[in-house]
Each structure stands twice: as C-alpha cells, then as structure tokens.
UniProtKB/TrEMBL annotation:
Pfam families: Mab-21, Mab-21_C. Residues 207-271 form the Mab-21-like HhH/H2TH-like domain. PANTHER family: CELL FATE DETERMINING PROTEIN MAB21-RELATED, MAB-21-LIKE HHH_H2TH-LIKE DOMAIN-CONTAINING PROTEIN. It comes from Mytilus galloprovincialis (Mediterranean mussel). The lineage of its organism: Eukaryota, Metazoa, Spiralia, Lophotrochozoa, Mollusca. This is Mab-21-like HhH/H2TH-like domain-containing protein. Gene3D superfamilies: 1.10.1410.40. InterPro entries: Mab-21-like_nuc_Trfase, Mab-21_HhH/H2TH-like. Residues 121-191 form the Mab-21-like nucleotidyltransferase domain.
C-alpha cells in the first residue's frame, strides 16, 4: 500500500508538515509484492514497522532502501542485528542541530521534544503514517455501546497514526525505538464529546491540579510517591473507557454529578 510519510512538526497549537517523500509502508516486508520492490529505489525513505523486540505501543522503524538514501539521511540510522534502523535518538539530535540555525533557544532534548531553557515551549517532530496499523485493529471491532459511532471510527482510522521519537524508558535499545502515537485519534474523540463529557474531563483535571498536585509541594517521601502516579493522559484514557461502556444518553447536563462520580470511582479503582 503506497502512502506518504511526513515529518510532522508541532509548535504550540500550530501544526506544520514537511513532506519527507513518498514511501511504501507496510506492517511487514513480507506483504510487499515482488513487482513493487524494484520501484522502491526511486522512493523516499521506506520504513517497515518491526515490533518483534519492542513493548506494546512501541516499534522499531526498519529502513529497507538504505542504499538509495542520501548520506545526510543515513546519519540518523543505526545497524541492529543486520538491519538499518531509524534511530529516535539520532533523529532528535539531528533535528536539534538543524533548528539551532533558526531557533538556538530550542537546545534541550526533553522526552520526544526539543525545549527552551525555561521549558516554556516544546517542539516535537514525528513521522506520520496514513495507514491504521494492524496492532490497533482490535480497537475497531471491540465490544462497545454507542460511542464512538461507526462513522467516527471510520474517520479516525482513515487518519492513520504518528510515530514519536522516544523509546520505552529503561528498555534494551531504547534509543532505536519509536512510540506509536494515537494523538490524532484522541483529538477527534475529544472533539466528539458532549458538553457533559467535557465538563467531567475538566473536573478531573481540576482534581488532579488542585488536590493531587498540591500534595506534592512539600517534597516529602510520601509526596514523591505521588509524583507520576497521575497525569492528564490517564484521566483522558479513563474517560474514553467509561464513554465506551455507557450509553450516550447518560451524558446529560442534569446528570453531571452521577457521571463525575462514576469517573471518580473508576479512577480510585484504577490507582488502588
């Protein structure tokens, strides 16, 4: 299946896409027709997902047209077990080098991002695949009630996924791994929320910031145990699950307290 790959650059709320060249991308190289392999030499970077040695939601990106690439692109590749992999660590280092010419303040690598000294801005760069990967296929057909609708699921899967340059922390070959990101799908799901669902999400975030975060201020051993226990991503995921398990008619303004209580009870169940 022929699709396009992109460097997707995010600065604040503004997105910019820099075309990285047409690419033939599949879950495994074995599914590639023999008749198309010769044509790969004329493509841009051709990447194949390789999840054999990675944890769920992470992957290696194996390059299969290495010989046809420029020396500049080869600088972000590393050899691993006879394969050329796109290194997430070298990718970020090269990005920092290039950005230093126009944004010298963005010189600190912070997770998958480049940040300024004051951590006031994160600059993230990732790869985009327009194909819904096989690892996420179960999400399409798993049991749910009325949300998200089949039409919304179809819209989400047509948007594909992103690959973020960061590996599973502490794992072997962390520097070669990329995280499979569904942030596009998550945004579409949130945009489909009713007013009551959005209120519940806002209340959960207030709970996190005003109650849990304040418990960390003292810096005691107990407070350090709280650090990293909760984040807004966990709250968003929790709300996604509850929304799938309940009928959309439940999310009404006059039912906000029972809805929020259900979210709070699920949160307590998950962390205890």
């Amino acid at each position: 299946m022929s699709i396009n790959y992109y460097f997707a650059v995010y600065e604040s709320e503004k997105d910019a896409l820099q075309d990285f060249g047409a690419a033939l991308v599949m879950d495994t190289e074995e599914t590639m027709p023999e008749s198309e392999k010769d044509a790969l030499q004329d493509c841009g970077v051709v990447l194949v997902m390789d999840t054999e040695e990675t944890q769920p939601c992470f992957t290696h990106l194996r390059v299969i047209n290495y010989n046809s690439l420029s020396s500049c692109i080869k600088q972000v590749m590393e050899q691993h077990q006879g394969h050329n992999l796109l290194s997430s660590e070298l990718y970020k280092a090269q990005l920092r080098k290039q950005l230093s010419l126009i944004r010298p303040d963005l010189n600190k690598i912070h997770g998958p991002c480049l940040s300024d000294k004051g951590d006031n801005m994160d600059f993230a760069s990732c790869l985009k695949c327009d194909k819904w990967v096989s690892q996420a296929q179960p999400w399409i057909s798993r049991s749910r009630l009325t949300w998200p609708s089949p039409e919304l699921i179809s819209k989400i899967t047509s948007c594909g996924v992103l690959f973020v340059p960061i590996g599973n922390k502490g794992s072997i070959n962390e520097n070669l791994q990329w995280r499979i990101s569904f942030s596009i799908a998550e945004k579409i799901l949130i945009y489909s929320f009713s007013h009551t669902q959005l209120l519940c999400y806002a209340l959960l975030k207030i709970l996190l910031k005003e109650i849990v975060e304040k418990e960390k201020v003292d810096g005691s051993e107990k407070d350090e145990d709280l650090k990293g226990l909760l984040c807004s991503y966990f709250l968003k995921t929790l709300l996604f699950w509850i929304s799938e398990e309940t009928d959309t008619s439940v999310w009404r303004p006059d039912n906000i307290i029972p809805c929020f209580t259900a979210c709070l009870q699920r949160l307590i169940y998950c962390i205890l």
